[in-house]
Amino acid sequence: MKQIKRLFMITILATVLTACGNTSTTAEEVSISLTITDQTTNTTISEDDFTVQAGTSLQTVLEENYDVEVTDDGFLTAIEGHQQNTDENIFWTYEANGEMVNEGIADYQVEDEDHITFDLQVIE
Fold first, then answer.
1. What is the Cα–Cα distance from 96 to 115, expressed in whole angstroms?
2. CATH number, domain with residue 82
3. Could you identify which of 36, 52, 91, 121 might form a hypothetical disulfide with 45, taking C-beta atoms 3.0 to 4.6 angstroms apart as the criterion?
4. Strand (E) positions, the chain?
5. What pTM, to 2 d.p., does this model score?
């Protein structure tokens, strides 16, 4: 009986030590889709799907995949040469999953199955 208890304890101890020794972490990946349009010229600039690490900022996704311009204080001003024009009230806006987002692209962290739409449009 002592041998069975000893074998049982050794098995549990080995399992616990193996679990504690596995320090590798695998970052969760999320799938997102991104649509970019210029409403002032009725042009679709891009429609792409991406797989990125969970917690990635939207700004990082844009900067890694497109030619973008962002001000020092985090405002998106251009994507692929399509520039906002403050004198004509033309600005970039974006929605996530059909809802307007009220945070900057540096603060928005993408989530699995996000559908994000950027529109360059006249704001009245």
1. 6
2. 2.170.130.30
3. 36
4. 29-38, 43-53, 68-70, 76-79, 82-83, 90-96, 99-100, 114-122
5. 0.77
